[in-house]
Amino acid sequence: MKQLSLKPRVGIQSITGCAGCQLSIYFIEDMLLDLLDKIDLVAAPMIKEQNADEKQSDGQGLLYDVLFVEGSVSSQEDLDNLLKWRSQAKTLIAIGACAVNGNVQSMKHLMNEKEVENAVYSKFPSEPRVKPITSVPIHKHVQVDFYIPGCPPDKGEVVQVLKWLIEGRKLKVYDKAVCHECSLKENYCLLDQGVECLGPLMNGGCKALCPSFNHACTGCRGLLDDANLESGKQVLKDKGFDPEMIIKRMTKYNSLQFKEFDEKKGLK
Amino acid sequence: MFVDIQGSKLARCELKVVEGARFFEGLVRGKRYDDVQEITSRICGICSCAHTVSCLQALENAMGIKVSEQTRRLRELLSIAERIRSHATHLYFLALPDYLGYESALAMAKKHKKEVLRALKLMKLGNNMVQLIGGKEMHPFTSVVGGFTHVPDKQTVNNLRKELKKALPEAIATAKLFMKLKQPVFNAEMDFASLNPEKEAPLISGNIITSSGLKIKTDDYTNFIDEEIMPYATGKFSSLKGKTFCVGAIARINNNYKSLSNNAKKLFAQAKLKLPLANPFYNNFCQAVELVHWIERGHALLNYDFKFEGLPKINVNNIKAGRGVSAVEAPRGILFHDYTINDKGFVEKCNIITPTAQNLRAIEANVRQLIEQMLKQNANKQKASKDKIITEVEKLIRAYDPCFSCSAHFLKVKWTKKRV
């Protein structure tokens, strides 16, 4: 990655989601003001009135050196915005489970879409404005340069990524299962305690937060890129669980990823 | 926000709340009881604790599960913690820049460093508290159907109490700061709804009361609150028995002034305002007064010997089918969760009404009233002041602290003024 200019132009933009990732960034209370000395925050529509627009783009049509995008593509407007931002950003980072994996709103991929929609708007005549796009993560539409998973992402990780970018360093991907950090912490394995946990299949980097508080991992950071679903299911089966049931229950944040993994298996 | 002014007449005024719909009420259908909280928490980043607590209580009501006093206490603390950071964020990051004439709180940092640092301190306190009780700062996960998977240890609780004590002067300073802000003369015609606080857990229980004297059982809310969709928005608009109403800090103080802490009462008295307040611009000040109240309440609630009660055990083979409703006071007002569960523990029906959805109609009506009022004043002075109207409208909308991920993203006032 090329070293960025002295004060990189950083932006945060959001499409459909809960806006929590953006908030997480403002919640870096101790560091926020120092951080803002080191970057030029050109867009943060949630807390700023004046945000970068086309007129301010540089000679190459760029507005951002680094742009964080939160949310999943769930409407035509989302898509239009995303395509525009991509063309304005040197580095585009997907932040949070919505942008990275589609999050809960993408569960529709594994459900009957009509039924889901009717449950909410059935009282009302169907109109095109409530006809959404089935939520997908942003990499389905634009090239994404780096991913910060999690729901919400760890704010320390956000700061670290920004630091790496400011210093012109290579961005490092965390690619170990949740179990890795969990066992380093010497936690008593939840699976062994009879709790349905997806730790073996899911991306870590969260310091095994949920299992450390006796709560099953439900995979907010998505499936491991090389997760072996078949052997994962076998592990769950061996421990006495019904793997199909568990997986159906626990694909909240990454239904689309799960579906694709399953389909790939079918092709073999 | 779409506003159409022709001459000195307001022709159209529509709050265009448009966001990609996520269909939560549909998504949770067919999900098991222990998956629901995690999903509905994602409705909103800033009020995820309120969604968590309301969701769990509604499910427990449906399934006939009683929780311990400690669990209720921890859930209220979670709500208090969220309120502290939510109010601090709204007051300093969203509302104050309007009043001081800055484009953002960050731009204020040079001249008003003290205030910005105070905001960050209060936000940090709230965040820490949510994290220590709920497992993480947003979308807490330790609270589950039947109880908690983890409770904070003694040391943590003691430290939190110290932090809350230290933060009290900051909250008082906040109330004093917002007391000084000048608000326009404006009397909105609407009702104010809040929960009728129960002594043991005022934030997370109680029936609904309004300033006009309505008393509504939480379970009966559907008979009183109507939701409808406007042709220009994806968010739902609500009315209470056909009347415009609002929820939030101002409604809570209007209806429950008596239950405020002494310090909060003292501060409110200093502002020399008459109750009930009819001017929604004062919602900001009410939030600041609440900051003081809830910091004190949180401090008192933490004076307790928390002990891990073990993972909640629910017998999946013996689940009672039924419906359960819960209403809690989220930072922005009453939040309803309503579930129907079958005997396998799966959700068959779900209805959620967020505070912002309840306020949309009031916001729209207030904006209309405010613009008409300003146009009348203008007509006398024969002066057009588009910018002034836009600023005041934005202030008014922001005073409601609309949680726009529940319903919309951000606001732009579109102005089509044909003749002046």
Would you kindly provide a written description of the structure presented here, covering whatever features stand out?
- The complex is a heterodimer of chains A (268) and B (420).
- Chain A is an alpha/beta fold.
- Chain A has two domains: 158 residues, Rossmann fold, CATH 3.40.50.700; 90 residues, no CATH class.
- Chain A is built from eleven helices and five strands, in the order E-H-H-E-E-H-E-H-H-E-H-H-H-H-H-H.
- Chain A has a five-stranded parallel β-sheet with strand order 2-1-3-4-5, sandwiched between helices.
- In chain A, strand 3, helix 3 and strand 4 form a beta-alpha-beta unit.
- The model of chain A has no long low-confidence stretch (mean pLDDT 87).
- Chain B is α+β, with helices and mostly antiparallel strands and 420 residues long.
- Chain B has a single domain, classed as Cytochrome-c3 Hydrogenase, chain B (Orthogonal Bundle), CATH 1.10.645.10.
- Chain B contains twelve helices and 14 strands.
- Chain B has a four-stranded mixed β-sheet with strand order 7-6-5-10.
- Chain B is globular and about 75 Å long.
- About 2% of the residues of chain B have low confidence.
- The chains are: A alpha/beta (268), B alpha+beta (420).
- Chains A and B meet through helix 1, helix 2 and helix 5 of A and helix 1, helix 2, helix 4, helix 5 and helix 6 of B.
